[in-house]
Amino acid sequence: MKMTMEIQQPLLGAKGSKRGVITKEGEDYLWKTTVQTKTPWQPSNLQEPESNSLDFCFTITPEIAEFVTQVEEEVLAIVARNPKAYLGVESLDQDEIQCRFMSSLKSSARGAPNFKTRGRIGHLKIWDADGQSMKDMTVFASDTQYQFVVRVSSIWVSQKGNFGVSFDLQHLQCYQERCPFKQ
């Protein structure tokens, strides 16, 4: 199997964690959903005016599960070939690497499976069902359907040696129900 994903050696960040940029064949690694999904809750930091990023979670569809699993398996294979470069550890077996890995396919405290992404204000573009740009960042509702584009942006490595993949939300298209009371 030919690997098309590249991961730069992680660099130390301001808070002690490390990040290694991910590309695919030298370009940004972008992926677009073709199936609509929902979000089980609003981004937790939506009301923080000083925050420039929002954590988004989407209900997992088979399409999302397949894509994220494929990306994470590819990252694990690359890290396993050179754990010293990515994790700073001379050698780890496959089980030890797997134990340190934190998937972006999550379950909430109440057991709701979801796919975690991050959207950065100023970089995230939000669109309505007709493809028109939306300015309002408070459009998230449980009855709204979404399609999105994510960028597989980097691996992150914590100070404790855990690591995972960052998926950055680039575009979010909202398919809101029309209000029946406005007729």
Description:
Helices cover 17% and strands 35% of the residues. The N and C termini lie far apart (56 Å). The chain has three helices and eleven strands. It has 183 residues and is α+β, with helices and mostly antiparallel strands. It has helices spanning 62-81, 83-87, 94-100, and strands spanning 5-7, 11-12, 18-24, 30-32, 53-59, 101-102, 105-107, 113-120, 125-127, 145-157, 163-175. The mean pLDDT is 86.
Task: Lay out the secondary structure.
Blueprint: E1 5-7, E2 11-12, E3 18-24, E4 30-32, E5 53-59, H1 62-81, H2 83-87, H3 94-100, E6 101-102, E7 105-107, E8 113-120, E9 125-127, E10 145-157, E11 163-175
Parallel strand pairs: 6-11, 8-11, 9-11
Antiparallel strand pairs: 1-3, 2-3, 3-10, 4-10, 5-8, 7-8, 10-11
Q: Quickly name the level 1 CATH class.
A: Mainly Beta
Structural class: alpha+beta
The helix fraction, in percent, is 10-25%
CATH fold annotation: OB fold (Dihydrolipoamide Acetyltransferase, E2P)
Unreliable stretches: none
Summarize the structure.
This protein has 183 residues and is α+β, with helices and mostly antiparallel strands.
Throw out a few tags for this protein.
183 residues; alpha+beta; eleven-stranded mixed β-sheet; single chain; elongated; OB fold (Dihydrolipoamide Acetyltransferase, E2P); 11 strands
